[in-house]
């Protein structure tokens, strides 16, 4: 199996590590650490050295409660880094839901669009002319770019205020069926598409772990799985010794649970794991590979 992207045919015969590069002042885990282009590029270079197979960069925080970022600010954060990162020799993914950003980064040579909205977002109050460029159209009109379609309930500002109800697995599968059919109906080849269950995006702790426990059912969608457990609050909920400890558990104390969750995801069929701690995850996957 492979993932067809703009510049690379990505071999998915072994599990791959996607390194997270947040060009933001307010991300839940590492906001502000790589906010300048120079700092973000140094982080990209470090992640590649640590073994990242793919770099995933984003200029807007989508943590629970996050406010939308104006288009011009996102472009100012993302474009200078993409312009440099495409020279590093690994696939470059951009985490965005705005079609204008998608078009701009693809024009610079980015390989993958990683969209929490699964190409469904429309600008609130936009006129028909302003909304003419849709995310679906941007991806469909590109001859090769890869795309990751994530499941999200509601939107970042409100998703954890009123999370999903009921059995999460069939709801995620139904969502993927609808969105992939729409995209393929526009001419996008199946080999360009990867899906993400959206751990922590409008789901309860129990639902997040149900997605992991029953992850093999998600393989029934017929697309490679990209899974992102890294430093998520559900890991703190599972490992903290008390409710107070959940609130005070620093994100950097979630390294071990994050690596364990990544390994469990791979054992249950994930093709790609999206992580902050690349070196440690790569080491753990090598141990898993040694027994396979």
Distance between the termini: 18 Å
The helicity comes to 25-40%
From the coordinates shown, what is the CATH architecture?
Answer: Alpha-Beta Barrel
Number of helices: 11
> Biggest β-sheet, characterized?
8 strands, parallel
- Radius of gyration of CA atoms, rounded to a whole number: 18 Å
Low-confidence stretches: none
Beta-strand level of the residues, as a percent range? 5-15%
The helix-strand sequence is EEEHEHEHEHEHEHHEHHHEH
The CATH class label is Alpha Beta
Rounded mean pLDDT score: 91
CATH homology superfamily: Dihydropteroate synthase-like
Count every beta strand, where a strand is a DSSP E run of 2 or more residues.
Answer: 10
Classification by helices and strands: alpha/beta
Taking strands numbered 1, 2, ... along the chain, how are they ordered across the largest sheet? 8-7-6-5-4-3-10-9
CATH topology: TIM Barrel
Count of all domains: 1
Give the overall shape, derived from the CA principal axes: globular
Sum this structure up briefly.
With 292 residues, this protein is α/β, with parallel strands linked by helices.
Can you describe what's shown?
The radius of gyration is 18 Å and the shape is globular. The longest helix is centred in the middle third of the chain and has 18 residues, at 168-185. Helix 1 crosses helix 2, helix 6 (205-213) packs across helix 8 (233-239) and helix 10 (255-267) packs parallel to helix 11 (278-291). The protein has eleven helices and ten strands. The chain is 40% helix and 14% strand. The chain has 292 residues and is α/β, with parallel strands linked by helices. An eight-stranded parallel β-sheet has the order 8-7-6-5-4-3-10-9. It has a two-stranded antiparallel ribbon with strand order 1-2. It has a single domain, classed as Dihydropteroate synthase-like (TIM Barrel). The two termini are 18 Å apart. It has helices at 37-50, 71-85, 99-107, 135-141, 168-185, 205-213, 215-218, 233-239, 243-248, 255-267, 278-291; strands spanning 2-4, 9-11, 16-22, 54-58, 92-95, 112-115, 146-150, 193-196, 226-227, 272-275.
